[in-house]
Specification:
mainly alpha, 2 strands, Four Helix Bundle (Hemerythrin (Met), subunit A)
Length: 176
Amino acid sequence: MEANYLQSTRQQFLYYKSLGEKAMAQVPDEALHWAYNEETNSIAVIVQHLWGNMRSRWTDFLTTDGEKPWRDRDAEFEGTLITRAALLAQWEEGWNYLLGTLDALQPSDLARTVYIRNEAHTVLEAINRQLAHYPYHVGQIVHIAKMVQAGAWQTLTIARNASRGYNEEKFGDQKN
């Protein structure tokens, strides 16, 4: 069961990584830095935050607190104007920290204790914490991309008013 959990969470993380990438691919470069207002974040800021969080949480995951002393969380929310290429490099680097650590974990590690901001978590709890955190921000990226693209948005899931056709195709003649 534990091995299935690690494999399942990896697949879930990759799914949300893919959604973020597909959303970012639809927006022009300048839109990566667009924010609805001063209280909201741009896609670039969200990516910077995810990168900082992933680096901090997944570096020396089993042996040091997930909130590293070298992390500057506040700086992650400053609108640094970087290129799409640099932003996507940060995105990949962050996910590589996560996936590399996840791949190195053994089922027996799930009950071990790790710390995030000096708060004890089992490894399983720490993974679940991030599995809630990262999709939350990927959803923000998708929402911003949809706003920016408006009528040009290409849906990432089942299109509006297309559920019936999707289900008919998916289930065919199968009756429940």
